[in-house]
Amino acid sequence: MGQNNRQDKGGIMGKTIIPIGPYHPLQEEPEFFTLTVEGETVVDIDVRIGYNHRGIEKLSEMKTFENCTFVVERICGICSTSHPYAYTRAVEDIIPMEVSMRSKYIRTIIAEGERLHSHLLWLGLAGHFLGYNTVYMWAWKLREEILDVMEILSGNRNNYAMFKPGGVRRDINAEDIPICLKKIDSIVPTLVMLKKAVIDDPVLHARLKGVGVLSYQDSINFSALGPTSRASGVARDVRKDSPYGAYQEMEWDMIVTKNGDVFDKAVVRILEMFETIKILKYCLNNLPDGEIDAKIKDIPPGEGIGHIEAPRGETFHYVKSDGTNRPLRHKVRAPTFMNFPTYKATVKGQTISDATIILAAIDPCYCCTERIAVKDVKGRMLYDGQDLIRLSREKTEKIKQRMGGK
Amino acid sequence: MIREELLLDFTSRFHADILDLEDKSHTRVYVTITPESIVRIGTYLFRNIGARFNIASATDLPPKIEILYHFIVEDINLLISLRVFLDRDKPEIESLAKDIEAFNWIEREMSELLGITFTGHPDPRKLLLADNWPEGVYPLRQDYEEWDRTIDRTRGV
């Protein structure tokens, strides 16, 4: 599609969307998709982001190295620990230094607890989009248990404020560990049930297999990350490739599937939760003794890179120091920045009722998908976000009926 | 391919374009190259070596603007950062997004935040900033000043 076409599409988009406003009270992270459709099929897709651009990189240049940890923690409410983790590792790379074994374990516990609740949140929402509200309720009920564990360990359900350059801010009390282990164990039977319910369900097979396929080559070309690329057969995980934290200390498997469709992305996340539980339990059971804070005084001039595996893929931070107490430059790259553009490869040629779940399958901030507006080639508005979720559910319902009738 | 072989092969292949090579640590290498060679070297790392493109980070360092293109070779856990220096008055470099999709969004971002022109970019629209953001005002430049006099930024932060 030519440049002109794109521009006048932008004009229509602006006119139609402004009355609704990108800042809807129900939405956390507004993003605006324009799907161009012919009949039921999506022929072109465009996205506008930046409605919620907060200038964190600029803000970070005005804070001290210590304060930046808190600023980057507020980039995302769901994976609030991945940014401080990458940032502290970048600062430690400037010096360079390694943190103590005990802080490595504590960092790993917090990061994995976050992965567990983040994947559960995604699973619940995927169920919600598909009309499986039971999955949604179960998954979020399990997530509550994990949030309780995080509250016991750190004092907060989210935004744990556990990280600091040189170590961790708070220790884990030995008497809290048994109750945490008990809570983690308590979710396993239901999780196994959910796994079976999703992986063996013929309706979900019919609904999600072959939908929104991201091929291996596309995944490489877009430099997709995390579960999005692992579902396409790219066996890459920062925890395995560039070991950090305590991940080398125990046995765990990297989950890789090869089809690249929405079903495989769900499977990767579900199976990954069991690996996460394995890592969490090992760390809690084998927490070594020692100092938790190296008490860094000054950050020398230089540059450092920190990258870690967040629930959605690799989070990457680059910090440049000029010897003062503030970063000269702080570059933040969240995993969705690389995963999001894959919509160009996955949505075209699919039906409107699949668009919601394909876009949700990369696990962007979940509210994004309700920001979709569909217009026909003449530019009239056809559906808004609520309609799309309804369409998606109706399709599942139809498949259910067809299969039940057999 | 082990680390030393890769670096040896890399430096001999592009010795005319490499201005400086800083072997910072076992997992980090910073290579300063000429801006003209970025497409050749970047494509070589991405396609031939099979490195994954992490991201690019641009910094305003008057009188120059620096761009670092971060690549990771995951098999040997080596992060190679290609460093280029551009003229701050007329920062211009060839786009890598023509061939490789992964560069698309970050080049759009650097272009609006630091005013770098990426020649041949397939989709040079704004990515993050608002539509009413004035032309020629780049928020990540060192001399950036608040341009909107009507706004009250004293609250909230």
Q: Architecture of the largest domain in chain A, CATH level 2? A: Orthogonal Bundle
Low-confidence stretches of chain A: 1-28, 366-376
Strand-residue proportion of chain B: 25-35%
CATH superfamily caption of chain B? NADH:ubiquinone oxidoreductase Nqo5 subunit
Strand order of the largest sheet of chain B: 1-2-5-4-3
The count of domains of chain A is: 2
Structural class of chain B: alpha/beta
- CATH domain fold name of the largest domain in chain A: Cytochrome-c3 Hydrogenase, chain B
Structural key phrases:
heterodimer; A: 406 residues; alpha+beta; Cytochrome-c3 Hydrogenase, chain B; four-stranded mixed beta sheet; three-stranded antiparallel beta sheet; 9 strands; globular; disordered N terminus; B: 157 residues; alpha/beta; Beta Polymerase, domain 2; five-stranded mixed beta sheet; two-stranded parallel sheet; 3 helices; 7 strands; 22% helix
Structure at a glance:
The complex is a heterodimer of chains A (406) and B (157). With 406 residues, chain A is an alpha+beta fold. Chain A has 2 domains: 3-49 and 338-405, no CATH class; 56-210 and 273-335, Orthogonal Bundle (Cytochrome-c3 Hydrogenase, chain B).
Structure description:
The complex is a heterodimer of chains A (406) and B (157). Helices cover 50% and strands 13% of the residues of chain A. With 406 residues, chain A is an alpha+beta fold. Chain A folds into two domains: 3-49 and 338-405, no CATH class; 56-210 and 273-335, Cytochrome-c3 Hydrogenase, chain B (Orthogonal Bundle). The longest helix of chain A has 30 residues, at 101-130. The relative contact order of chain A is 0.18. The model of chain A is unreliable at 1-28 and 366-376 (pLDDT under 50). Chain B has helices at 3-13, 38-49, 104-114; strands at residues 18-25, 28-33, 52-61, 64-73, 78-87, 92-94, 117-119. In chain B, a hairpin with a 2-residue loop joins strand 1 and strand 2 (28-33). By secondary structure, chain B is α/β, with parallel strands linked by helices. Chain B has a single domain (3-119), classed as NADH:ubiquinone oxidoreductase Nqo5 subunit (Beta Polymerase, domain 2, 2-Layer Sandwich). Chain B has three helices and seven strands, in the order αββαββββαβ. In chain B, the strands form two sheets. Chain B has a five-stranded mixed sheet with strand order 1-2-5-4-3, with helices on one face. The chains are: A alpha+beta (406), B alpha/beta (157).
